[in-house]
Amino acid sequence: MAPCPKIEFRIPISPTEKFYSLVRFFNFGLRRLEGAAYQDARLLVVVGDYCDLDAVRRANQWSENFNVAWEATPTSVFDEFHWGGTANWRLHVPAGDSDVIFLCDADTVLVRNIDPLLRDFPTDERAVGGHMAHLPPPLADGSTAPSTDGPEFWPWLFRAFDIPWPAITHRYSMDKDFSLPVAPAYFNLGFIALSPGALAEFGSEVDEVTRRILQATGSHMRCQIALTVMAYRARMRIDVLPAAYNAANDLTHMAVNELKAEQIRVLHFLREDEVNRGELQPSLIDGLLTRSLNNPANVLLQNLAREYRASIT
């Protein structure tokens, strides 16, 4: 039997009660899973907005009972990149003894184990895996880049970075009528798997690449675009993961990807038509627990939140 991999999850946040509640909920979902990989996993929370890290730790004393670490985004990084700098700073922190590092959004949670991914992920290569973004990245107003809804954007960007066009391309994960152009592996950052080698490569390049993408596109999806550029420029192994590893609480996303709630491993509860991410705060959670929901992904979230509520009383 292969040894249990050491895994680490990295989440970027602002220092607010809403984000603290999301992190605590993520930690709950992680620790309820069976196996040393999940019980011993490191959770690294990167906090931006010029935070007072001591105050952050005082506000999150629950984390002292778990393998949770808090990291402040350096002032110079936040000055230049703002919230994007908080997301990117995760790539600068060395892997330590972790075999697989996961970048996660604060509004994600593990609802089932990710054992199949852990078994197959190539930790000894420079490897990255993620689920395709829902749609093409938006451009800033006034950008002179080709429209991302057309076929020229990604080839134009790859030429700008002197990257050969890949032999394999992919559909966006919510391209329900196949009306959008194909794209390189362009991942939603809700859940990304990295090997230590890939993390080190990204950490050395992310600032330079982000600056160039901002100048070229102005897109607020610059972090996602940068990941694609860095992975292809370094000729990494790139694996497109199925929707179960980054399942939006979106009925269209579930339908296009033929995904049922009972198949979801990582839930990304970014849609707020039935639920609100802020409702995981102790003062608001009871409203979430008593509401009638129709979306099966939201029901899954509600059931997990009910377990979580019982654990914090």
Task: Give the secondary structure arrangement, pairings included.
Elements: E1 7-13, H1 17-31, H2 36-39, E2 42-47, H3 53-59, E3 68-72, H4 75-81, H5 83-89, E4 100-104, E5 108-110, H6 115-120, E6 127-132, H7 153-160, E7 187-194, H8 196-217, H9 222-233, E8 237-240, E9 247-248, H10 251-256, E10 266-268, H11 285-290, H12 296-311
Parallel strand pairs: 1-2, 1-4, 2-3, 6-8, 9-10
Antiparallel strand pairs: 4-7, 5-10, 6-7
Characterise this structure.
This protein is an alpha/beta fold. It has helices at residues 17-31, 36-39, 53-59, 75-81, 83-89, 115-120, 153-160, 196-217, 222-233, 251-256, 285-290, 296-311; strands at residues 7-13, 42-47, 68-72, 100-104, 108-110, 127-132, 187-194, 237-240, 247-248, 266-268. It has a single domain, classed as Spore Coat Polysaccharide Biosynthesis Protein SpsA, Chain A (Alpha-Beta Complex), CATH 3.90.550.10. The chain is built from twelve helices and ten strands. Helix 10 links the parallel strand 9 and strand 10 (266-268). It is globular and about 55 Å long. The chain starts with 6 loop residues before the first strand and ends with a helix.
